[in-house]
Structure of Leucine-rich repeat-containing protein 14B:
Amino acid sequence: MKSLRFISAEAFVSNAEFARKSLGAVAHDLFPLLFKASYLLEQGEVIHDLVENWPLFDFNMGKLLGATLDYQEDLSHRTCSVCLESCLTGLRDYVLNQSPPYMKKLRVVDLTGIKDVEVQFCKCKKTMGRWARTQLLSKLCSELLVYLQQAQCNPGTFEISINVLIDLFVTERNYDLVVKALLKKCSCPLKICCVAFRSDNLIHNVHLEMEHLEMLFNNIHFPVLMSLTLPARTFNVRRFTATDEQMLAHIGEKMGEMTQLTELNMSFSILTGRIQKLLSPLKTPLKILDVSNCSLNHTDMAFLANSFHANHLEALDLSGHNLPELYPSTFFKLLSHCSSVLRSLTLEDCNIQDTHVNMLILGLSPCQKLQEFKFIGNPLSSQALKHLFTFLCELPMLKNVEFPVPRDCYPIGITYPIDDTSLCRYDHQKYERVAEELNLILLQANREDVKASTPLFGIMEAVAQPPYPCASFFCRGKCDN
Ligand SMILES: [Zn+2]
């Protein structure tokens, strides 16, 4: 429901020309209200002028667009291109406009509250994703620098210093631009502060490799960086040369300097025997670690299990490792160390078989805070799944389970991991019956709150979930949005 105040704000901003002319006479504390109303109506010009004349100390997108007393709806999921572009150009013009310096109170702009989702509900239907926001902000910073060097601008302009908190998304295509903006941060009134860093190279042939990464980390300090998503296959060499080893050590050291870093995603890199080199310089314990499909060996797992990170891990993804055969004891050691804080565990394609279920139950028993358990792609029978589900009912916080199609629903002789062509060749009726029985187990234990499903192609979706704030279901955000 909208308050009368909000309805009036909508009426005010819907006439862009009138609103822009009248802004000077509007009370400062009404700016947030007008901003949300303009965002809802996609009044780009009004948004631009509101930001250009922002009278307050901070500009926090998540807070401004989130639920407010005047209008409950959260608009932070709208990455409307019109609105976001107007915000960012408005910010540039805030720096450049002629208002006296004492009027310019803005110190912090926080863009990290913008959430990228698959489906967009805005009029223009054009989104500006994380990559495009990174690109535009970097471009505006570079333009500002050029402008400040050339033009006769207000001397007060050089005293403006606004920290702009943003989640960066860097690929080879915007690497140069972003690096330039970051390197010249000291002389630019808009200072990019990277809170989460992500770079990808999976689908569109955009590469950002170890050497780019090393250069980036060597030249730029990321003091507020909390989340780091390295490109899949950044470390894509089986035989590391001496230079590779050196680079790897540097990257590790640089990560150690990121004192806020608590989320690390390194999926699909070959890290065999190198986890210690990368992670031992870290001084802050990781809360989220994704090392799925990283070909970890026993030494890597032992390092993880014994490191101080183990006691802090809230989300762990070890998919693609043959846990029961390669390192049963170290894996369970790791699990026991994080059991008191673990919220999300992903063990897809880990060769967990019927004979391992009892061990798994023992390992999971202390994980009383577990909310999510994903284990598709494991060769488990219907019987074993039922046994496991009976146990899962006892985990009080559990909300989401992703379980595999039972092995006995596939033709005899199927081999794991199942290839894409055979993935759907299972007895669907039998699967439906088993899935019903599993749900019945949950119902009988009064666990209607647990959602159990088999998202066969959902690996994509899982990767798209926060902390990987990407857009579309299938592209996993590797498009430029
Ligand atoms: Zn729009």
